[in-house]
Amino acid sequence: LRAIVDEPSGLLGRAEVIGNPVLRWEPAVTGGEPLPELIGRMAAERPDAVAVADGAGELSYSELWDRASRFAAVLRARGVGRERRVGLVVGRSSWWLVGMLGVSLAGGVFVPVDPAYPADRVRFIFGSADPMLVVCQGKTRGAVPPEFADRLVVLDETDLAAAPDEDLPRLDPRDAAYVIYTSGSTGTPKGVVVTYSGLGNLAMAHIERLAVSPSSRVLQFAALGFDTIVSEVMMALLAGATLVMPPDEDLPPHASLIDALERWDITHVKAPPSVLSTVDDLPERVETVTAAGELCPPGLVDRLSPGRRMINAYGPT
Fold it and tell me: Any idea where the AMP-dependent synthetase/ligase domain is (predicted)?
């Protein structure tokens, strides 16, 4: 207040509202556990439950954990350590999950890129993030810019059974978990570093508010480079539910939403209102529907919400 009175013509945004002692204060370390530890606990509690279903079949929690741990050892042998960035250009499948969790277990920071992105956007993201390695599949290798060809790790061509014995690092909640890039709709895309701190609480809030349980089947529908994918993955795996990652041809716009939900026996779906509006009603099996990415018109709520939980999640980014 004194600063404003002393300089009434000054910019309000430049006025100090807290003192230097407060500015120098550092918060205590959060008690939250990093994502890999939380998923590892679920793998120990529910080893035989189905963690992920895709076009090739299913992986149990123990199988997912085993593959991810072995892949983490491969990455450690290639030099990945705490907070080293690793690109992730993998299609919608259990391999994406193995890659993401493997990078995290190795201590790395995953940088997800949708293989369907335009080449210029992929090149910009990797030029900005400068990942030490880029994880891909055989079928997504062509989406990786040529200048990163010497950094490739082709996940589905890696012999995980021959993975070396490597000690995996103990992660700190303040460690970076991933880097997500904004859409760039207001200019140049910006990379945002997200730490493990708070991710567990975020997942638990989703699990509670969206009523995710071990019997749930959560559809992974978000673009593979969009931040929503992290919440879809976390709320499914930390609830002991099944994350469903269908091939692109089973999802809109290649297939109807109603067909996808019925074919994959989905209980929880998050989608833009423009996609949700293509159906008159949802299968009875769908317990929770979340509208995100666009404004949700009231008429859509009136049509789809009776008999189930409906959440408007537009605008968190």
Answer: 43-317
Q: What is the mean pLDDT of residues 140-148?
A: 97
List, in order, residues 6 or more apart from 1 with CB less than 8 Å away. none
pLDDT tens figures, 281-312: 999 999 999 999 899 999 999 999 999 999 99
CA dihedral 250, 253, 257, 262 (to 10 degrees): -10
Instruction: For residue 16, name the pLDDT band (cuts at 50, 70, 90).
Output: low
Dihedral sign of CA atoms 59, 44, 266, 255 in order = negative
pTM for this structure?
0.87
* pLDDT confidence of residue 166: 80
Q: What is the dihedral of CA 60, 243, 100, 272, to 10 degrees?
A: 170
CA 185 to CA 98: how far, in whole Å?
31
The dihedral through the CA atoms of 276, 281, 284, 289 has a sign that is positive
The CA distance from 69 to 46, in Å, is 17
Dihedral sign computed on CA atoms, order 128, 130, 131, 136: positive
110 pairs with which residues across the strands?
Answer: 86, 178
CA distance 228 to 220: 9
Q: Which of 225, 203, 210, 215 is nearest to 269 (CA)?
A: 210
Q: Which structural domains are found in the chain, ordered by start?
A: 35-245 (3.40.50.12780)
- Report how far apart, in Å, the C-alpha atoms of 215 and of each of 57, 60, 173, 311 are: 18, 14, 29, 20
In whole angstroms, give the CA distance from residue 231 to residue 237: 10
Average pLDDT of the segment spanning 160-188 = 87
Q: Which residues contact 195 (CB under 8 A, 6 or more apart)?
A: 173, 174, 175, 176, 177
- Tally of residues, the chain: 317
Rounded CA separation 313/308 (Å)? 16
